[in-house]
Amino acid sequence: MEDVTMNVPLYADVIAAGKRPEILFWVGCAGSFDARAQKVSKAFATLLNHAGVDFAILGDEEACTGDPARRAGNEFLFQMSALQNIEVLNGYEIQKIVTACPHCFNTLKNEYPALGGNYEVIHHTTLLHQLFEAGKLRVEGGNFKGQKITYHDSCYLGRVNGIYEIPRKLLEQLDVELVEMKRCKSNGLCCGAGGAQMFKEDEPGDKRINIERVEEALETGATAVAANCPFCLTMLGDGIKEKEQQEKVNVFDISELILQSIK
Amino acid sequence: MIQIILFSLITITVFFIAGKKFWRIRRNILLGKEKDLSGDFGQRFKNMTLVAFGQKKMFKRFIPAILHLFIYVAFLFTTIELIEILIDGFTGQHRFFANMLGSFYTFLISFIEGLSVLAFIATIIFLSRRNLLKLPRFTKAEMLGWPTKDGNLILLFEIILLVAIFTMNGADTVLQSRDTPHYPDTGFLLVSSWLGPMLFDNVNTGSLIIIERIGWWAHLLMVFGFMLYLPFSKHLHIFLAFPNVFYASLTSRGEMENMESIMNEVKSMMGLTEDTGSEAPMDDLPSFGAKDIFDLSWKNLMDAYTCTECGRCTSVCPANQTGKKLSPRKIMMDVRDRVEEVATALDVQNDECKIDKEKALTKDNFDDGKSLFDLISREEIHACTTCNACVEACPVMIDPLEIILDLRRYEILTESAGPADWMPMFNSVENNGAVWQLPNSRAEWKDS
What we know:
Helix content of chain A: 40-55%
Distance between the termini of chain A: 8 Å
Low-confidence stretches of chain A: none
Largest sheet of chain B: none
CATH architecture of the largest domain in chain A: 3-Layer(aba) Sandwich
Strand content of chain A: 5-15%
Largest interface: A-B, 74 and 66 residues
CATH class of the largest domain in chain A: Alpha Beta
CATH topology of the largest domain in chain A: Rossmann fold
Distance between the termini of chain B: 95 Å
Mean pLDDT of chain B: 94
Helix content of chain B: 55-70%
Strand order of the largest sheet of chain A: 2-1-3-4
Number of domains of chain A: 2
Radius of gyration of chain B: 28 Å
Mean pLDDT of chain A: 95
Oligomer: heterodimer
Structural class of chain A: alpha/beta
Strand content of chain B: under 5%
């Protein structure tokens, strides 16, 4: 699978060629610029290619959704970002959006409508699940068959948007041995990045939140932690490094696990 | 006759005072900003039935939920006994429902007695949990002093109340067995019919009549005491849980309330609105977000009065669990304490709090130089990850997060303050359209 060339068209180019992509892949800041999250963007785009999904990205026409600004309290900046994005999205008459970031997902889906941006927004785990259901993606053998893997619910996919089962179903497709952490699903513990914490130092305390979470993940004895959010990926990865377990335990986005197991 | 007069006087006085105190709480809640939460009656009623009446969210923690359910159901059904007591008290009868309901009365009182035993056990366990096991969520910093006493006092009231019920019913069954006039046959009561003889068999009838009266009055006075105590206690959830769940947000948890004033300003700035320059010039600088209780919605204030300080929110808060100062429960307690502070000044018409000394002290003419920030530190609101665990955990659908975010909005938008670390992020979102300041194209990842 790894040698398949990846084709990621720009929305503007597709429109210029007189066509209209079925779905917009909203990459997000992390997916665009963060080295770790870029790999997820690539894995997901490759899977979309593999499944024959007609998609495109906005490239430089995309801007931050404004989520961290809004949750930091900066409504003004959120409005600027959001309205600018809505101009672009409405300009292209975009109907359907998929994103690999649950923060982008939440903001596009739940907050843009109040500002005049109404789209069908899905998280990439949902789209991948649909592709499996439709037989467009199939797993063979699987690199992770029988491996102990634990799944970390991101707050904005899980508790905020109630999506707990779809990512777990994807992991089941891979025949992994899914082991749950003590705090999971609606009781899942945050990785520590949300609410714009990603962009500031922690307030004084006994421990960093990601360490608390990683300790719980390590307790399961899993060899990999599956995540669905670029910020969780960073937080959990950092925590595992701090615990010096990076040789034994990896953190993956679900799309990466699928890409390594695909037929 | 003297008993009837005494009873009537006490009852009317208690209802009058309690009524005034509850009306005061209603006024206090309405110190908050208007927010239209009407409509969607069906969905709201369903939530209230499941979550408040049906205790659905309590059952996230099974054992405490069951114990709490015993006390709750016992409380609901004891109301029937209370109604009988009120009728008896005003009319001078004894066990008004007994003859009327016959064997169903036996069943009803037996049922209440069974529930009362369960409630008694639950209360003892709850007291031990607070004082012997010292459950972490009951011993956090914000619980020191009055909140801990408050919690214990209520449990103690419950024990006295239950002892009074069994004293009253126990003595009654023995009196019935002696064919004392004025004591109608209640049939075999589940607990009292064996507990009564066990305790009171050797007591003479004269003393027993007095013991029965002591139990009856103690029961009544405990209920009255409770009614008068409630408005000063965390225990208001027994009533407020219902409207609080009813009016809980029906929109997605993921949606922060849109600030239309800012949206419109940004729209006109970006040239997205048709009418230009028609806005009225603003006299003074607008204030955004929440600094004080007047800037929060009435629902936020009702949340604060509904909070029973169980601490489920705090026990799941990632910031709190890792030793940060933030505790969602403390936020709710601080809001309530601040409302009470303002309300007390309003009650006594404290001149020092008036902006315009000529006018009466009202919420629009109020400034005591204090705000929520005197109770809630910046460190607390900065520690929140907006993970929604507190919102998910609350059995009565309180939303501490909305308040935290409104305080953040005040800090950033009105004070132009906030964590310095956020400034580079703000700057790059504004100038670069990304959370990090990078010279690269947003599409570069696909070719690297």
